[in-house]
Amino acid sequence: GMLNLAKDYITWGEISKETLALALKERALLTGRKKIKEEEMKDSLGYSSFDEVADYLISGKTLTSLKNVVPVLRLNPPKGGLESIRKSYKSGGTSGYRGDAINVLIKKMLKEGVDLNGKN
User: What are the record keywords, sorted (predicted)?
Assistant: First the structure.
């Protein structure tokens, strides 16, 4: 119900494990807005790599179930801009269901840009 109401304003699809691991590595923060370092992951999260955390999340768990992790990944606008925002993805636009193509959009949104940790 709610997804159908918002479909003209959002886009969604299935994220791959590789894209999720990359997004976590680039944008996941510990409480206190500290970037997660791979060397310190075992102590702070109980996992030894971002791939393990991605497996955990792909299995159906959420970021809120991880202790000490801010449950939001902040992204930049996509590098190169969006397609038409007035059309659905099937019609050559941006909104609506993308399926696996969401991975391309997320990678464009992870490109270098504004430092979202508050230190520009």
Answer: Ribonucleoprotein, Ribosomal protein
